[in-house]
Design a protein that fits this description.
Elements: E1 2-6, H1 7-17, E2 22-25, H2 32-38, E3 45-48, H3 52-64, E4 69-74, H4 75-80, H5 82-91, E5 97-103, H6 117-123, E6 127-128, H7 133-150, E7 154-159, H8 160-164, E8 166-170, H9 186-189, H10 193-216, E9 221-223, E10 231-235, H11 236-246, E11 252-255, E12 257-259, H12 263-271, E13 276-279, H13 285-292, H14 311-318, H15 344-354, E14 358-360, H16 385-395, E15 404-409, H17 410-427, E16 432-437, H18 466-473, E17 477-481, H19 486-498, E18 503-508, E19 523-525, E20 544-547, E21 550-553, H20 563-567, E22 573-575
Parallel strand pairs: 2-3, 2-4, 4-5, 5-7, 6-7, 10-11, 10-13, 14-15, 15-16, 16-18, 17-18
Antiparallel strand pairs: 1-8, 6-12, 9-11, 19-22, 20-21
Helix pairs in contact: 1-2, 1-7, 3-5, 11-14, 15-19, 16-17
Length: 577
């Protein structure tokens, strides 16, 4: 059957057809839909894990039990999972293990442009990279057999464009994979030094075998061209751009298995053309390998290591001026990301900004508190860093008046904020952490997390009590506020900053976009009462603007939260009814 799939859904379909039994992931754009789609197949046990490290270790446990398993993450999530990945390379697998990682060139929803191909080389595991939805499907299926044949986890690398673009996929029926019996094998699975040192030679031997496999792998192919004055080595998204620009003019070596790389295939291809050009986004990974083989090639000296490529990028470098029109030339108006009208985080940020606090931020939709006009966030590093960074800032006496807080979302707190709070409690820094609890994982599209009480399918699940957890860690001062109540937030903030003890403020109100959160009647502005002071504009609500010198509310955006009525000193904002 032929169906239209985005790349992520195609991966999920491939997992299903290959007999996958378990998938454990932490949501991260652009990888999230793989797990969400896999959860729709009842034969696959699917879950959201607290973080990527836990997800990979869960997949390992399932593999140990003989079940084909998967974990998925975005590129920075692979950093979190790197600890088990590197040792998993040594232990190998029982049931096959696939690790799906999605890179984000152009940083559409990420804090860096990390290139995950380096992990395959460093961890000494194979990596596949599909170039369309059909390959997403096929590679996901093939990865399990590759994993089990070579006793290794397999990395499947996607990127934003492949993960979210659609193309036709030829689907098949599911084939149940025979469950491999677990057999106790201390020498293979217990990675204490004496055992691990004996596993390392096996890893090196495996990579040699995989390199030979890469030479004849069906995923690596040469596509002939009319003009051998130039040959193009490429993979993934860039392959699509190259074919759209060049067609069959030049020969193309299209790599689907990008680690280990086929040395003879690359050498033979380079010898068949007058000039070798390597087209790849981000780092010169393929290019550097070619240079290590002693091949002369054009790569990052002509292309950029920054951001995404396009047909226009390829056309310009390869000398196709007539093809530059393949890319859209129209200037598209900028639409900067912002917190939604009625976002519960905005009230707390308004109070933090009004109190001129230094705010150590974290990863989530609340990172947008750094945007004008609030500009309430001073720094954001990585998941969980707000809590640990706050502790270090305060221990270093970063601000004598002590007006420093860390902000972190409920899902991010469960991901990697807990250990930072343990550090605060254990080493007793006078630090105040604000947990922005909006009852969901917001930025990646409303996934459940351990604090919501529901699992990936929406069924009731274990629910972590944040207040009890903070108390159990050793934080004595824990209080809950409603971020729509500015006075209560202001009072709580002042009191906790003044206290000579670690403290946690839980700012709790559900995300306004959740289906069960019902909007109230929009407010309106009484023009006779409005004094045009523009104080309401300092709140940064997208539903509020100035028209004809007076404040105005867009009723299509306003959710009736009423926070603006607390800000206006003249009572110009009125609620109907």
């Amino acid at each position: 059957m032929k169906e239209l799939f985005i790349g992520n859904a195609a991966v999920a379909r491939g997992l299903y057809e290959a007999g996958c039994g378990l998938i454990s992931s932490y949501p991260g754009t652009p990888s999230t839909e793989i797990t969400e789609e896999a959860a729709n197949y009842p034969e696959i046990y699917a879950e959201w894990a607290p973080n990527e490290k836990v997800a990979m270790e869960t997949a390992f446990g399932a593999s140990l039990a003989g079940v084909r398993s998967v974990c998925c993450m975005k590129h920075v999530g692979l950093n979190v999972a790197a600890d088990p990945l590197f040792t998993l390379s040594y232990t190998g697998v029982n049931g096959g293990i696939l690790v799906c990682v999605a890179d984000d060139p152009g940083m559409h929803s990420s804090q860096n442009e990390q290139d995950s191909r380096h992990y395959a080389r460093a961890a000494k595991v194979p990596m596949l990279e599909p170039a369309n939805s059909q390959e997403c499907h096929d590679f996901a299926k093939a990865a399990f057999a590759l994993s089990e044949e070579y006793d290794s986890p397999v990395l499947l690398r996607l990127c934003t464009r492949i993960a979210h673009s659609q193309s036709i996929v030829e689907t098949e029926e599911r084939v149940e994979a025979p469950r491999k019996p677990y057999e106790k094998n201390i020498a293979k699975y217990v990675m204490m030094p004496g055992m691990a040192i004996r596993r390392h030679p096996l890893v090196e031997n495996r990579m040699e075998k995989l390199a030979r496999h890469a030479e004849d792998c069906a995923f690596n192919r040469v596509e002939e061209g009319k003009d051998h004055a130039m040959g193009i080595l490429t993979s993934g998204t860039c392959y699509q751009y190259v074919k759209e620009v060049c067609g069959d003019t030049y020969p193309v070596l299209k790599l689907g298995m990008i680690w280990p790389l086929p040395e003879k295939l690359i050498r033979d291809f380079a010898a068949s053309v007058d000039k070798l050009v390597v087209v790849e986004e981000l780092d010169g990974f393929l290019e550097n390998h070619c240079r290590q083989l002693g091949l002369d090639c054009t790569g990052k000296d002509a292309f950029t290591p920054l951001g995404e490529y396009s047909q226009k990028t390829i056309a310009k470098v390869l000398g196709y001026p007539a093809r530059e029109s393949l890319s859209i030339e129209t200037e598209i108006p900028a639409r900067p990301p912002m917190m939604c009208a009625g976002c519960p985080h905005r009230g707390m940020y308004y109070v933090l900004s009004k109190n001129k606090c230094t705010v150590i931020g974290d990863i989530g939709c609340y990172t947008l508190g750094a945007q004008a006009p609030l500009q309430a966030v001073d720094t954001t590093l990585c998941m969980g860093s707000s809590v640990s960074g706050l502790h270090g800032f305060n221990k270093a006496g970063g601000r004598p008046d002590g007006k420093v807080v860390g902000v972190i979302g409920d899902s991010t707190f469960m991901h990697s904020g807990i250990t930072g709070l343990v550090n605060i409690a254990y080493n007793q820094s006078n630090s105040t952490v604000v947990i922005l609890d909006n009852s969901i994982t917001g930025m990646t599209g409303h996934q459940q997390n351990p604090t919501t009480g529901y699992n990936i399918k929406g069924d009731p699940a274990g629910k972590i009590d944040l207040e009890a957890l903070c108390h159990a860690i050793g934080i004595q001062r824990v209080r809950v506020v409603d971020p729509y109540d500015l006075d209560a937030c202001d009072k709580a903030l002042k009191e906790e900053l003044a206290a000579e003890a670690p403290s946690v403020i839980i700012s709790r109100r559900p995300c306004v976009l959740l289906k069960y959160v019902k909007a109230k009647t929009p407010l309106h502005v009484n023009p006779d009462t409005c004094r045009s002071c523009k104080k309401c504009m300092s709140y940064g609500c997208p539903a509020i603007s100035m028209h004809g010198g007076k404040a105005a509310i867009d009723p299509t955006l306003c959710v009736g939260c009423g926070v603006c009525t607390q800000i206006c000193p003249f009572g110009a904002f009125e609620q109907e009814g």
